[in-house]
Specification:
The chain is 37% helix and 21% strand. The protein is built from five helices and six strands, in the order βαβαβαβαβαβ. A six-stranded parallel sheet has the order 3-2-1-4-5-6. Helix 4 runs parallel beside helix 5.
Length: 190
């Protein structure tokens, strides 16, 4: 809610969940993703039911000729397709490709959110202590309200993830909530 109690348009931002898990920290991350997957799925259902924008922002993993379809296909063909299939984008989902940690860094996401009249973002995905943290900071400095779904984010290092969540709450005014307690407002009136 904004000052005065007015609802503001909310978007769900799904960070780096279309992943082949072909990196050195994959095993630790996969365990955490399995725990976060039900929360991510619940958020996707609730956001879609409310008509809220769902934006997948995903690393291109250094494949500079790739687009969202190729990134999804590679993840679905990978060893851990069971972590991708249940939360794959639908036909209404929006997609932004990123190359660095923050979903905003040198991407059109801020422009897209402005065009959609979004003033509140719900972050879910991976990795809590890296991409989620930096994305929350960049959302905060863009004057967006930030909510982090604590049961829908995955980590490599549990201690760093817990510290990152505390930093997001304290330093970025992020709201930390379980996925089932996060309201979504869809299409603005008018």
């Amino acid at each position: 809610m904004t000052e005065g109690g007015d609802a503001c348009r909310t978007a769900l931002i799904v960070i780096d969940m279309l992943n082949t898990y072909e990196h050195e920290d994959a095993e630790a991350l996969v365990r955490s993703v399995r725990e976060a997957l039900p929360g991510v799925g619940a958020l996707l259902r609730r956001a879609r039911d409310a008509g809220a924008p769902v934006v997948y922002v995903n690393d291109n993993f250094g494949r500079w000729r790739s687009h969202h379809g190729e990134i999804l296909e590679a993840a679905l063909a990978g060893r851990y397709s069971d972590l991708v299939e249940p939360i794959a984008p639908d036909e209404e989902s929006l997609f932004v490709v990123k190359a660095r940690h923050s979903v905003f860094y040198e991407t059109p996401l801020a422009y897209l959110l402005g065009q959609l009249d979004v003033r509140r973002v719900v972050l879910c995905g991976q990795v809590t202590e890296q991409c989620v943290l930096y994305s929350a900071l960049d959302a905060h400095i863009r004057h967006l309200e930030v909510v982090v779904a604590v049961d829908a984010v995955a980590h490599i290092d549990a201690g760093l993830a817990e510290a990152a969540l505390r930093m997001m709450e304290r330093n970025m005014s992020a709201e930390l909530r379980p996925s089932g307690e996060i309201p979504f407002e869809g299409t603005p009136p008018g």
